Amino acid sequence: MKDLYALPTEGASFASFCGGNLQGEHESCVEVGQIPGAAEAYVLRDNKPEGAGKELRFTQAELDAFVVGYAAQRGLKL
Questions:
Q1: Quick one: which H or E segment has residue 18?
Q2: Which of 51, 42, 50 is nearest to 14 (CA)?
Q3: Which backbone phi and psi does 62 adopt, to 5 degrees?
Q4: How many helices (H) and strands (E) does the chain have?
Q5: Which residues pair with 15 in a beta bridge?
């Protein structure tokens, strides 16, 4: 498997999934974007100032397994 942390993320487009806690410019969000030029590779980041510059990177299969497992654990339906 390719080292996802060795891939550049410049130019990635991110979608924000927000928690509804503070609203406006202080809203806490998880942002996810596909790593440019890498098939099935994603980067996640936290938009809070404390999380600036920190990222997690996953393959599509890893991210899908997380989403399905988290939803099941929480009793959420996909």
A1: strand 14-18
A2: 42
A3: -65, -45
A4: 1, 4
A5: 32
Q: Which residue has the higher pLDDT, 23 or 77?
A: 77
Mean pLDDT of 46-74: 93
Averaged pLDDT, 56-73: 96
Q: Where are the alpha helices (DSSP H) in 1-78?
A: 60-74
Buried-state track 21-58, b at ≥16 Cβ within 10 A, e below 16: eeeeeeeebbbbbbbeebeebbbbbbeeeeeeeeebbb
Tell me: the pLDDT tens digits for 5-21?
A: 999 999 999 999 987 66
- AA identity, residue 45: R
**pTM for the whole thing?**
0.82
